[in-house]
Amino acid sequence: MTFKKISSPTLKELFIEQIENMILSNELKIGEKLPPEREIAQMMQISRSVVNDGIVEMAKKGFLQIIPRQGTYVADYKKYGTIDILVSIMKNSHVSNDYIQAVLELRIILMNLTLESAIKHIDKNHLKQLENISIQLNQSQSCQEAAQYLFDFDHYLTTISDNLLLPLIFSSFKNPNIILFERYIQRHGIQIMYERNVLLLQCLERKDIAGAKKIMTKSIENTLSGKTEIYNK
Known about the structure:
Blueprint: H1 11-24, H2 37-44, H3 48-61, E1 64-67, E2 71-74, H4 77-80, H5 83-91, H6 97-118, H7 124-138, H8 143-160, H9 165-172, H10 174-188, H11 191-206, H12 209-225
Antiparallel strand pairs: 1-2
Helix pairs in contact: 1-3, 2-3, 5-10, 6-8, 6-12, 7-8, 7-11, 8-9, 8-10, 11-12
């Protein structure tokens, strides 16, 4: 068993987290102007440089819009935000169930497309690699470790496909997927997902695309419907 180093967040990280929470909770509304940096620094009892660095980072994500000589405004992050917005949303303890549902619905589309493409090319070496990842999943000692192996299993499937964009798209959603996997494992354990992988491997070995898609779709739809709960109550 290994223990990870414990590190405390920086003032900038704490500042960003607080402002993002205010935006996501609608305490700061889209289009609203933030107070001047000096005023924010005084209210939060931090340096102006911390405020400035945090605002610049949130602007890059798409949470804020900096307009020269006018000020800083809450951006329409739902319309113009980057993938980093989704990561922040999924990490937020008050994440909307609508966002969780949207990620799950996207997973159904991506994973079924992956299976359709991968099953044409999968061979014994691929199956062995997927089996090894599943074994490591089953032996995981933490939710974080198990979530990484779940992502690795699904991502490896995308690399077997002949679609050049699937692995890239799937990688871009790595953090939101891992966060969802962690939530799932915390509430339901590893065994259900390990059994999903075992059944998938059996279908892939038989080149049974209908069976593979049924297993994948059922697994995600059970979560979508709340049968295997990960939504906020």
